[in-house]
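User: My collaborator sent over this chain with a note saying "see what the structure looks like." That's all I know about it. Can you take a look?
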Amino acid sequence: MFTMRPATVDDVSGVAAMITARCAWMEQQGLESWREDVDDLAGQAGRGFMWVLETEGRIVGCTTVMTQALPQDWTPEEAEEPSLYLFTTATDPAYREHRPGSLIGLWTVDRAARQGRRWVRQGCYSPELVKYYKTQGFTLVKEQDRNAGRLYLLARRAERLDLARLGLTDRPHKPETHLQG
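Assistant: Without extra context I'll predict from the sequence alone. Here is the result:
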């Protein structure tokens, strides 16, 4: 069983270890990794926007969930639509057969629906990730040229899902006003 829960400052080292494992896998595949950014990315665990996917006490994935669109990514009209935005999703390649990235994506789709939002949106710079996100029901909405390369923006309608059937439980945020998600 996998659990999605809010990340805390106590998760920084576990998130860093998981991201480091992902970096090693990416480098073995000849892909650019986040190795130089591991500490910064893991440090986000205590800031109130990151969620972690864990099983048996081990962090096997993380994502940042925001309620605000980046203005350069979405039009003002799109940004007005109630949505959740996923950023910086990473998973432990040792758990690949469990599809932790899909679990995170589907959890977010369900969470958005439970919050009365219409969409889950995300972006990436890799055509291979676009193919992967499409297997989760996301649709490529548009592409933009950026300094970092070609940005692909995707969206999926929010809908209630049977998380238990997916082998996933949800531990909600404690009511703190500075947390979003």
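A starting point for your reply to your collaborator: Residues 12-28 form the longest helix (17 residues).
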